[in-house]
């Protein structure tokens, strides 16, 4: 799939903290002097597979923030060796030039200074802190004359929170926009610092890195509703982003990072949320690789599904597609839907549940989202009871970056056929369910990016098995395919 079909398409790069900060900062309690703690990090710039990218130079910004609010902390400043900033004023951020010619990762030697509390306040508590690495604001500004040529480009930028970052050209003539990264929380402990000496840091490092996927706010009230209301309607509360937790120390595990196809699937679903309902027809890409859908279909009239829709993600990993689908389901009138994120047991017990738990507390800003449940599901012939998540009249399977291993294609196909081509109607699980043919609607949506030789052979394998296979969306290297 060539970038040439979409002139505005770019690739998604990753800013990485190749060396994460210490897990705990130890400070002296009761002192009335500023305390400075040395901190050493390392930065890298890669693609989603972790391959280092080569380009001329890129100005990056390192910030110290409160971990829970992502706001600058009070009474804490950051100093960074080699900073490009010429100001002598205390700050919570610093910029530096990342130049791959100097090596694939840059060591960042800095320090944090903690100002003493006011005399009347005693020992002050400091909330957990984190570092954020992002492209410098001066490097984010695109030319005002450059506008996205497609809804997909604008949506991708909105999802990753980079609406105006200029693209960076690598030495192999590819264009990238880079995703920021935030470290996991660092805890500040008063009482263990040695009296009269600078603070100390723990040997243990933070184990997690965080990326954010931004959500659209709920629809604003209509002008008519606002006009007849006695009190002006409050502005919609922007929902908190979806937190995606990565574990850089476990990068050999494919489930431990955020892949491009998960972002591509989220973009496709955001533009066409009706695709989550298998009873709704999908458009197909034309021969030039462009969709026959001219504009986002968020306002498309959607009839109520004859029974609740069940969304099941296969090989979910960090479960971004599941969580994004749960957020979108209310926009198509399926608030009674069910969403299940599945993977092998080791991933469910670690990455998947960790990511679901990280987002479960955002009830105040995403109150109407459909809850996401987890379940162990191995592909292939299912053990008794293992396919319960797949048994429903209205099922949409989601998969992102699950075709990279051709040796697993036959097992994946067996699972798809179990859902899309059941030999006999499955019995209902309760008296209110009905599996008659009139209610049956099922499809699979798989986001694909070429990873290995032969991984695109799955499409022909599925066709030979009798499935309808269509490409329904494409942007850059990522495409979404429907199986019915």
From TrEMBL:
Gene3D superfamilies: Vaccinia Virus protein VP39 (3.40.50.150)
Transmembrane regions: none
Molecular function terms from GO: S-adenosylmethionine-dependent methyltransferase activity
Any Pfam family hit: Methyltransf_16
Alphabetical list of InterPro entries matching this protein: Methyltransf_16, SAM-dependent_MTases_sf
Protein name, UniProt field: VMP4 protein
């Amino acid at each position: 799939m060539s970038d040439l079909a979409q002139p505005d398409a770019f690739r998604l790069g990753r800013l990485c903290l190749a060396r994460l900060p210490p897990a705990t900062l130890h400070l002296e309690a009761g002192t009335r002097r500023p305390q400075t703690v040395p901190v050493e990090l390392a930065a890298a710039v890669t693609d989603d597979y972790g391959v280092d990218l080569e380009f001329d130079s890129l100005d990056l910004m390192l910030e110290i923030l409160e971990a829970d609010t992502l706001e600058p902390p009070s009474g804490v400043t950051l100093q960074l060796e080699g900073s490009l900033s010429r100001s002598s004023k205390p700050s919570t951020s610093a910029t530096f030039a990342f130049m791959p010619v100097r090596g694939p990762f840059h060591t960042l030697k800095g320090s944090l200074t903690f100002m003493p509390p006011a005399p009347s306040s005693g020992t002050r508590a400091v909330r957990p802190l984190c570092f954020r690495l992002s492209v410098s604001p001066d490097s984010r500004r695109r030319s005002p004359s450059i506008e996205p040529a497609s809804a997909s480009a604008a949506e991708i930028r909105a999802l990753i929170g980079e609406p105006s970052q200029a693209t960076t050209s690598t030495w192999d003539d590819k264009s990238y926009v880079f995703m920021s990264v935030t470290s996991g929380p660092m805890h500040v402990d008063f009482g263990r610092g040695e009296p009269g000496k600078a603070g100390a840091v723990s040997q243990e490092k933070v184990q997690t890195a965080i990326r954010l996927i931004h959500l659209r706010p709920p629809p604003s009230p209509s002008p008519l509703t606002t006009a007849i209301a006695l009190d002006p309607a409050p502005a919609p509360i922007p929902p908190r982003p979806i937190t995606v937790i990565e574990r850089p120390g476990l990068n050999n595990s494919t489930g431990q990072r955020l892949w491009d196809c998960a972002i591509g699937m989220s973009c496709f679903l955001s533009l066409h949320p009706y695709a989550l309902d298998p009873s709704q027809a999908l458009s197909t890409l034309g021969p030039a690789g462009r969709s026959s859908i001219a504009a986002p279909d968020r306002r498309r009239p959607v009839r109520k599904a004859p029974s609740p829709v069940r969304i099941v993600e296969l090989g979910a990993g960090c479960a971004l597609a599941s969580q994004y689908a749960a957020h979108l389901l209310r926009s198509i009138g399926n608030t009674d839907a069910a969403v299940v994120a599945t993977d092998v047991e080791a991933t469910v017990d670690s990455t998947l549940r960790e990511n679901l738990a990280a987002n479960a507390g955002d009830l105040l800003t995403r109150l109407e989202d459909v809850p996401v449940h987890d379940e162990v599901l191995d592909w292939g012939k299912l053990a008794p009871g293992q396919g319960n998540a797949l048994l429903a009249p209205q099922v949409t399977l989601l998969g992102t970056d699950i075709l990279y291993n051709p040796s697993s294609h036959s097992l994946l196909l067996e699972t798809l056929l179990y859902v899309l081509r059941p030999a006999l109607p499955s019995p209902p699980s309760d008296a209110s369910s009905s599996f008659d043919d009139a209610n049956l609607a099922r499809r699979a949506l798989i986001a694909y990016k070429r990873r290995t030789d032969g991984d695109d052979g799955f499409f022909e394998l599925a066709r030979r098995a009798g499935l309808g296979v269509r490409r329904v969306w494409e942007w850059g290297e990522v495409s979404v395919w429907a199986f019915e």
